[in-house]
Amino acid sequence: DQQVKQNSPSLSVQEGRISILNCDYTNSMFDYFLWYKKYPAEGPTFLISISSIKDKNEDGRFTVFLNKSAKHLSLHIVPSQPGDSAVYFCAASARGTSYGKLTFGQGTILTVHP
Amino acid sequence: DVKVTQSSRYLVKRTGEKVFLECVQDMDHENMFWYRQDPGLGLRLIYFSYDVKMKEKGDIPEGYSVSREKKERFSLILESASTNQTSMYLCASSILQGARQETQYFGPGTRLLVL
Q1: C-alpha–C-alpha distance, residues B78 and A81, integer Å
Q2: Three-state DSSP state, B25
Q3: Is the pLDDT of residue B99 over 60?
Q4: Which residue of B has its CA nearest to A92?
Q5: Closest CB to B42 among A49, A101, A107
Q6: Do residues B76 and A7 lie in contact, with contact meaning Cβ atoms separated by under 8 Å?
Q7: Given B30, B42, B102, which is nearest A89 (Cβ)?
Q8: What count of Cα atoms within 13 Å lies in the side-chain half-sphere of residue B60?
Q9: Which of A31, A32, A41, B26 is at a distance of 20 to 30 A from B10, taking alpha carbons?
Q10: Do A43 and B106 touch (CB under 8 A)?
Q11: DSSP-derived 3-state class of residue B76
Q12: What pLDDT, on a 0 to 100 scale, did the predictor assign at position A41?
């Protein structure tokens, strides 16, 4: 039962253009969402998060949008840079979850071409 | 700066061997986690610990056990390694931030090959 789904295994974008990574979830108890970025041979690093009380959160080139009614979130990277090429995971936390348990999606491989 | 270290980057073991994966964090975090990452499956939680000697099963605990004797150290044990445990293993820790503890900090991972 995949409660967090990233349906696009990969995305290819030209440098300077926008990258949009999508994530869908099924558990209505999820109320906090995070994006992590992972380079090969390294652990994931935290990128940006959003609480369910908001519909948008911005940090520099990265913006996360949350559509609660559709149970959908997306990460926008503008402008995309070759150094953004990595695997991106979305993750979610459920209301009332103790100890910070996260449920991760399958990941999307982003390739930004120079 | 948070640092999470894992004892090995690469390991090759034989079927049936007992395997220990060690993880150490240096920021006094309460929570520690073990995940495995497989292509197309993302990160799946094996076990986590919220205090010394306390542990809870994650989504895929079968074939694994854990130990947390000290706050900074969390060990994953494969009692009898099997080929389907070939994977990338990631350790993480998290800090209490107000009422939420979600931001997890990851180690570099251990790529385990079981022959």
Answers
A1: 40
A2: strand
A3: no
A4: B102
A5: A107
A6: no
A7: B42
A8: 16
A9: B26
A10: yes
A11: strand
A12: 82
